[in-house]
């Protein structure tokens, strides 16, 4: 059995409201073990011996059926999450939010192109480390940023989700319990 975190996209935003206890129940009913949630933004820790591909297919279908919405989730094992956290290129600062994007393969390059093409990106930085995309933006600017609008692009809904790097740290702490 391996420990994973499923990062759900679009949870508790724009009318897609889910109680994490219900989401955990859906995961348990799908046959995974040791299910728990971290925060209310769709971070579900669990254990399974199944392949990531099978888990993704099964869990997306179960979530879609139960909550009557088109579910997208991204699954990473504990080692991958540690690498995401430890590879963050930006220092923590009270003036900035540091984000990482959990993506499908190749999407990090698409994100960098969107960042490079953004008109307004004052005091923002973006960097790809290995295959992980990181973005730093001043606090209060996330949704006002030209690049920040990429989060709502329908063409990318099945290719990415984002998390504050502090959330990644909380997930790691929860996984090590």
Automatic annotation (TrEMBL):
InterPro entries: DUF1697. Gene3D superfamilies: bacterial protein sp0830 like (3.30.70.1260), SP0830-like domains (3.30.70.1280). This is DUF1697 domain-containing protein.
């Amino acid at each position: 059995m391996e420990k994973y975190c499923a990062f759900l996209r679009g949870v508790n935003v724009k009318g897609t409201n889910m109680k994490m206890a219900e989401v955990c129940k859906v995961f348990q009913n799908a046959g995974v073990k040791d299910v728990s949630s971290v925060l209310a933004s769709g971070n579900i820790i669990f254990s399974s011996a199944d392949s990531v591909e099978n888990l993704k297919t099964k869990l997306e279908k179960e979530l879609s059926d139960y909550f009557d919405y088109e579910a997208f989730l991204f699954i990473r094992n504990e080692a991958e999450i540690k690498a995401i956290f430890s590879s963050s290129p930006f220092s923590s600062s009270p003036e900035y939010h540091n984000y990482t994007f959990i993506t499908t393969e190749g999407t990090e390059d698409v994100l960098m192109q969107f960042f490079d093409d953004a008109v307004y990106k004052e005091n923002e930085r973006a960097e790809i480390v290995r295959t992980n995309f990181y973005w730093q933006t001043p606090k209060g600017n996330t949704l006002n940023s030209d690049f920040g609008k990429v989060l709502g692009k329908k063409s990318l809904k099945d290719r990415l989700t984002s998390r504050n790097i502090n959330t990644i740290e909380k997930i790691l702490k929860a996984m090590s319990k």
